[in-house]
């Protein structure tokens, strides 16, 4: 393998690591149906709205009325025979001409962000052939309200939830234990050691097979070394071991 080829492979590998780390750090991991968190402990959470009344939005063009209760399910209809009332309720419901439509439970909520994370996330519900997208809008001086942004078709609806609670905040989560932290560090170090070492030996020395493992002679002899150590330890506890010495 020529030096130019090795440099090209190293460049591609380095670029992949950079993109992977950037993607991981910019991802907002969904914690609950209404919250997500970044690696820096910032995130978004609508949990303060759990105990509030359901939000309501009207569309005068197609005569739709939307009811939305973030985070948890709740009966959203006065009609006890409606799907929006049965059981523990729903998170998203709509009405049109006295007809009630059940369009999503809290556990069906999907949270996603734009690639550049310049805007708050959107909540997406997919129910049968219906898609409802609720965009969060950060407004620190506004009252929480829900309104219709656009109705693309009878199967795609776009709403906006404007609220103080749609702004990015520091998330308070249970910290990892010392053991969990050490386990993560241990796994990362060993992963870098074995994978990085194997790639280095492969690219720089042309190693193949067992020789790609860093310090492969040590790891190959490790079982016998452990066996000798165990035998030595047990022999030290016996009186005749000193007599043989």
Automatic annotation (TrEMBL):
Residues 1-26 form the signal peptide. The chain crosses the membrane at residues 182-204. It is found in: Membrane. Its main location: membrane. Keywords: Membrane, Signal, Transmembrane, Transmembrane helix. GO terms for cellular component: Golgi membrane; trans-Golgi network. It comes from the Eukaryota. InterPro entries: Autophagy-rel_prot_27 (IPR018939). Pfam families: ATG27 (PF09451). It is a single-pass membrane protein. PANTHER family: MANNOSE 6-PHOSPHATE RECEPTOR-LIKE PROTEIN 1 (PTHR15071:SF0), MANNOSE-6-PHOSPHATE RECEPTOR FAMILY MEMBER (PTHR15071). This is Cation-dependent mannose-6-phosphate receptor.
């Amino acid at each position: 393998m020529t030096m130019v080829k090795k440099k090209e492979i190293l460049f591609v590998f380095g670029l992949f690591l950079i993109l992977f780390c950037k993607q991981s750090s910019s991802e907002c991991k969904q914690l609950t149906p209404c919250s997500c968190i970044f690696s820096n402990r910032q995130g978004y959470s609508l949990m303060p709205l759990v105990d509030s009344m359901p939000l309501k939005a009207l569309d005068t063009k197609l005569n739709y009325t939307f009811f939305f209760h973030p985070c948890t399910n709740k009966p959203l209809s006065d009609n006890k025979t409606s799907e929006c009332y049965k059981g523990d309720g729903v998170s998203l419901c709509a009405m049109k001409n006295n007809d009630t439509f059940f369009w999503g439970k809290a556990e069906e909520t999907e949270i996603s962000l734009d690639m550049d994370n310049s805007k708050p996330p959107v909540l997406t519900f997919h129910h049968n052939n219906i898609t409802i997208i609720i965009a969060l809008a950060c407004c620190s001086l506004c009252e929480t309200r829900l309104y219709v942004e656009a109705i693309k078709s009878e199967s795609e609806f776009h709403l906006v939830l404007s609220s103080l609670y749609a702004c990015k905040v520091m998330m308070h989560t249970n910290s990892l234990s010392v053991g969990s932290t050490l386990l993560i560090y241990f796994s990362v170090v060993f992963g870098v050691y074995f994978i990085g070492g194997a790639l280095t030996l492969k690219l720089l020395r042309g190693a193949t097979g067992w020789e790609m493992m860093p310090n492969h002679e040590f790891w190959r002899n490790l079982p016998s070394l452990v066996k000798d150590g165990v035998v030595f330890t047990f022999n030290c506890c016996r009186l005749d071991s000193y007599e043989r010495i």
